[in-house]
Q: What sequence folds into this?
């Protein structure tokens, strides 16, 4: 598709995924392990200080530790800088970097935000967003 066609019509790009929510009836908090921190791309020193939750399993969640789902999103607004990068046929990696300077946050970043609030688990973040590079 010619870049001028994209630039004249595209105003943004949205992606979403569903993650399972920790069951509030059996949620237990614990400190993130170094291995879990590594999976998420969090430095060892910082990982030790982070508390996250997991469901132990109970009758309301049928022993799964999860009850319900919530969405994680990434929204890339096509700003003037992003539009210029598209026009120049910038590589996807560079385009992502430019978008991030313009306020774009990834699915992974948004998943980690809800992980830190105890809404979902490390396993769900990794399942839905993959292992950190």
A:
């Amino acid at each position: 598709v010619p870049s001028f066609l994209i630039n004249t019509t595209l105003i943004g790009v949205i992606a979403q995924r569903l993650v399972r929510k920790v069951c509030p009836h059996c949620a237990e908090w614990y400190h993130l392990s170094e291995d879990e921190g590594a999976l998420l791309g969090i430095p060892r020193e910082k990982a030790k200080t982070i508390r996250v939750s997991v469901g132990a399993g109970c009758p309301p969640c049928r022993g799964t530790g999860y009850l319900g789902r919530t969405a994680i999103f990434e929204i890339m607004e096509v700003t003037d800088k992003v539009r210029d990068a598209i026009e120049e046929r910038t590589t996807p990696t560079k385009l992502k970097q430019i978008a991030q300077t313009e306020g774009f946050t990834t699915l992974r970043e948004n998943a980690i935000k809800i992980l830190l609030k105890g809404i979902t688990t490390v396993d769900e973040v990794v399942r839905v967003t993959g292992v950190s590079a």
Observations:
- The first strand starts at residue 12 and ends at 22.
- The mean pLDDT is 93.
- The chain has seven helices and four strands.
